[in-house]
Amino acid sequence: MRRRDLIAASAVLPVAVAATTAAASEKAAPGGAVVNISGVGLPVIANGRIQNYVFVSLRLHLGGSASPDAVRPKEAYIRDALVRSAHRTPFTVANDWTRLDANALSASLMRSAAAIVGRGVVARVEIISQAPRRRTGVRAG
User: What is the pTM of this model?
Assistant: First the structure.
């Protein structure tokens, strides 16, 4: 019987730890709540062609009394708007195909988020990491 209890506890433990970690990471900001968005693949376009992809992890800092529970259902729309704007007006850095222009990306996402979740819900966008798909064979400044 103890063995059965141990197996049952080991099955539930990872789920509880993951839920606690997710809740803690989304309340990490002392001034307000945050929503993390990871793994968004954005193109690096130069000379009218896709030269590389950069995978970006973002943190949306929510303003005022906005809650992560109100923003999470709209995350797919935010991702879609970001990818569409990256194809329309690339966030390419001149002479570097391994990273994106963080200021242009943040400004575009702020405009899109205001239209998707409402004005003032997203106070600022923090780019946590940028990981290029290819690191060799690309032009770097």
Answer: 0.71
Q: Which two tokens stand for residue 2?
A: 């103890």
Return d(Cα 137, Cα 61) in angstroms, integer: 36
Q: Can you tell me the distance from the alpha carbon of 71 to that of 105, in angstroms, rounded to the nearest whole number? A: 19
| Helix boundaries (H) for 2-136 | 2-26, 68-71, 75-88, 102-117
CB 59 within 8 A of CB 128: yes
Q: Is the Cβ–Cβ distance between 108 and 127 less than 8 Å?
A: no
pLDDT per position as a tens digit, 38-58: 999 999 988 888 989 999 999
* Beta bridge mates, 17: none
Write the single-letter amino acid at 17: V
Whether residue 66 contacts residue 121, with contact meaning beta carbons closer than 8 Å, is answered with yes
**How high is the pLDDT of residue 81?**
95
What pLDDT is stored for residue 117 in this prediction? Answer: 92
CA dist list (Å): 130 to 84, 97, 118, 133: 18, 12, 27, 10
